[in-house]
Amino acid sequence: MVLRRAAVESPKKVAALVDLVNLPTALREFAGGRSQMSHLSFFLGVWSHIKNNNLQDPTNRSIVNCDEKLKTVLSGRSKVELSELPMLVKLHFPKAFK
């Protein structure tokens, strides 16, 4: 529902999220060897990795304790706030030209 409304309001932004992009080597290893992936599906993969491996801090759920696999994606940081996740993932995806 939200994605549909966003597609109507700003289709170029949504297209940038769902278009396939060639992944760098470090991201390919995290994505299970896939060479192309959209920004949105990669971010969802990061989020599912965090949830499946129980990487959220038990005392402060807004902090993620990164394992070695996640550190390759999140600039080598050992702890990341949830609000920083989209920005750190976005660094790996090139900005689309207008």
UniProtKB/TrEMBL annotation:
Domain spans labelled DM2: 16-95
UniProt cross-references to SUPFAM superfamilies, sorted A to Z: SWIB/MDM2 domain
Recorded GO CC terms: nucleus
CDD domains reported in the protein's UniProt record: SWIB_like (cd10568)
Top-level taxonomic group: Eukaryota
PROSITE patterns, alphabetized: SWIB_MDM2 (PS51925)
InterPro entries assigned to the protein according to its UniProt record, in alphabetical order: SWIB_domain, SWIB_MDM2_dom_sf, SWIB_MDM2_domain
Pfam families assigned to the protein according to its UniProt record, in alphabetical order: SWIB (PF02201)
Transmembrane segments: none
PANTHER family noted in UniProt: SWI/SNF-RELATED MATRIX-ASSOCIATED ACTIN-DEPENDENT REGULATOR OF CHROMATIN SUBFAMILY D
Name by which UniProt lists this protein: DM2 domain-containing protein
Organism: Brachypodium distachyon (Purple false brome)
